[in-house]
Amino acid sequence: MAQIAVAKYADGLPLYRQEAIYARDKVELDRQLMAQWMGKLGFELEILADYIFSEVKKAERVFADETTLPTLAPGSGSTKTAYLWAYARDDRTFGRDGPPMVAYRFEDSRSGECAVRHLNGYRGILQVDGYAAYNKLARSDRGNDGITLAGCWSHCRRKFYELHVAGSSEVATATVERMAKLWQVEKTVRGQSPDARVAARQQASAAIVADLFDLWQQTLRRISGKSKLAEAIRYAVSRRAIFERFLADGRIELDSNIVERAIRPQTITRKNSLFAGSDGGGQTWATIATLLQTAKMNNIDPFAWLAVTLQRIANGWPSSELDALMPWNHAA
User: In the predicted model, is pLDDT for residue 316 greater than 50?
Assistant: First the structure.
């Protein structure tokens, strides 16, 4: 079962392909049976995935992102659009030594209410892309006034980069060139303390950021409001506060690539699998992927960890000692 789970949720090998592989070796293993096994694993492992999510929400800074997960709609024979929400933690970039981790949550919706429910009680920095639904988390009337939103400069860069590659805008090219200097600064301070990171950013990055916003505001006055360049500029200018927060807080990253790297393996698995077989299958996906991707983030062989963990659970491992079962505590 560990092999099947790792092949599907860590290596992107859907059950119908595994069925064919086993059949070549004269092993009759029906995909429906394997799906039942994965459902059972999801049920048994859910307590561990919930533990990881609880650890994620203890962080000073959390990254959030979401991606589609087509799912079969009951009785219709067609798929509906569901979502995997991802919440990642990696404190090593600002000098802490805690383990990196990611937790996925399966939902029928991309509504901001999902994020509000997932992060209920969280107090800290939430680093996200420009999706407006996350704005609800910073509203005091939601009881989440302790959340500070931080932006992702990679998302800001994308619209300018497209125009730069097309050779259609000198302003876009200048923007991309100046932004590159921000990432150069970040390379020199990765892993240092928050104070050291802020000092370096104030010395080098603050002036670059100020110049960028000056360039954008001056440009916006003299170009068509319907142009692609104006759209890119408005995206940046309207989010100026959350884009500038990294200058004053060394715990904030320049981008949200940490969670995007955690989302990418799920998009590959989704492409190969085409869809989740049911809502239960989507929940199983979120649970098992949480554990296997966290193992990979800690440079732990996901199969070795899962095989040992399933043996321990089968032998009656106490629920009071969940931390010992975490991937980051597995001996490599």
Answer: yes
Phi/psi of residue 124, nearest 5 degrees: 165, -160
The string of pLDDT tens digits covering residues 133-175 is 888 787 544 444 589 999 999 999 999 999 999 998 999 999 9
Together in a domain, 70 and 107: yes
| Three-state secondary structure of 287-329 | HHHHHHHHHHHCCCCHHHHHHHHHHHHHCCCCHHHHHHHCHHH
DSSP 244-291: HGGGT-TTS-SS-HHHHHHHHHHHHHHHHH-SBSSHHHHHHHHHHHHH
Side chain identity, residue 120: N
Angstrom distance (rounded) from CA 28 to CA 16: 12
Among 327, 277, 270, 274, CA closest to 304? 327
Please tell me whether residues 176 and 199 are part of one structural domain: yes
In a domain, 250, yes or no: no
3-state DSSP assignment of residue 100: coil
Beta-strand relationship, 101-107 and 79-89? antiparallel
Q: pTM score, two decimals?
A: 0.92
Asked whether residue 290 carries a pLDDT value surpassing 70, the answer given is yes
Judge if 64 and 90 occupy the same domain: yes
What are the φ and ψ backbone dihedral angles of 81, each rounded to 5 degrees?
-90, 110
Number of domains in the chain: 2
